[in-house]
Amino acid sequence: MKRLISFALAASVALALTAIAQAAGGPTIVMPGQGAYVPAPPPYPKGTMMAVLSGDPAKAGAVYTVRLKLPDGIKVLPHTHGDTENVTVVSGTLMVGVGKTFDVAHMKALPPGSFVSIPAGLPHYGMAKGNTVLQVTGLGPSSMTLVK
Asked: Where are the domains of the chain?
């Protein structure tokens, strides 16, 4: 529950900061370099930044899109999500693996333009190769739980 509250708080702050990009009833337009990045909530690794581009990741039934900035070499330990995670690599390279144990030998490199859809509840892990930006779309509420 604490993770959901932290995510909801970070998402609310980021959403408020990006509201200027949206006009009532109009399209959401986010230009390169725009987007109010804030530190991503735990359990995301320290140094991960997040910007809410549209929707509300904390709201049940809401379609959302966020961007994550991952510094070079950052490791995202094995975890699951409560919703299907649809990820597009915008820049850098995302190394991704499936399973409950972080294993570099079993990771696949996803270069810019790659897409991966990870079903809810499937344990997976990742690592940034170079400064990496990801765009994630899902159906809220978004959650992330580390595998023990």
From this structure: 2-146
Three-state DSSP state, 61: coil
SS3 21: helix
CA 11 to chain centre: 11
Whether this prediction's pTM lies above 0.90 is answered by no
Class of CATH domain 2-146 = mainly beta
pLDDT tens digits for 83-126? 999 999 999 999 999 999 999 999 999 999 999 999 999 999 99
